[in-house]
Amino acid sequence: MSTLQLTYFDSPGRAEPIRVALFMGGLAFQDRRLKFPEFAEARAQGDFPLGAVPVLDVDGVKIVQTAAILRYVARIGDQTLYPTDPWSALLVDSALDSFNDTLSQALMPSLFERDASKKLAMRAEFAAGPMARVMTYCEGLVGQSAGPFVSGTTLSIADIVIALQVLQIRSGILDGLTTAMLEPYPLLNALADAYSADARVVAYKAR
Ligand SMILES: N[C@@H](CCC(=O)N[C@@H](CS)C(=O)NCC(=O)O)C(=O)O
């Protein structure tokens, strides 16, 4: 069994789906959560291969890229989280990258905007543009499956990422993004509800 350490900020962000997948796989890991000054200091010391987190340290080898880490964690842990069938894996990868890459990158600038009105304008643009495109596409992917997840009844790493994003928007923590903006995506809302009802997710939240 490898020794695993996950480094990220002390926040959900890109690390939370990895933490959930590690938990679902029953994989012990050190959850290294850095305050921003600690992150900056560690980065200055060359602690992160690409200068960004999350970083998964596997037996002393530092690995980056959230999607790659998620697939690895699924393969060594709860293997139901990543399909072995090539078509199903393609759909999971496509949904995963649409949220973890396209949607996250588009949201990022507004997270750092300090001016409240500029932030709201950026969020409106985000919701009408990249968010609408990504959600419409993934709503279609889920619509082609038996539901409630991308791969039918089996929850995958893509579903973890999608659900956490939908739940974050629903929580109201992202100014300018509202539950009403999710109404055009009933299948993604249902996916998030099914995720929240999963016994492993309930246990993760209760730990
Ligand atoms: N493609 C990378 C992106 C990683 C990334 O952008 N991480 C952000 C946090 S969510 C980061 O470390 N930002 C700090 C910085 O670049 O200064 C992934 O999917 O893991």
Quick synopsis:
This protein is of the alpha+beta class and 207 residues long. It has eight helices and four strands.
Mean pLDDT: 98
Strand count, sense and barrel status of the largest sheet are: 4 strands, mixed
- The structure class reads alpha+beta
Uncertain ranges: none
List the total number of helices. 8
The set of bound ligands, ions and cofactors reads:
glutathione
Provide the domain count.
2
Give the SSE order as H and E letters.
Answer: EHEHEEHHHHHH
Question: In percent, how much strand structure appears in the residues?
Answer: 5-15%
Strand order of the largest sheet: 2-1-3-4
Task: Kindly state the number of beta strands.
Answer: 4
Head-to-tail CA distance between termini = 23 Å
Rg is: 17 Å
Q: Would you mind describing this structure in some detail?
A:
58% of the residues lie in helices and 9% in strands. It contains eight helices and four strands, in the order βαβαββαααααα. It has a four-stranded mixed β-sheet with strand order 2-1-3-4. The protein is globular, with a radius of gyration of 17 Å. The mean pLDDT is 98. Glutathione binds at residues 13-14, 51-54, 64-66, 100.
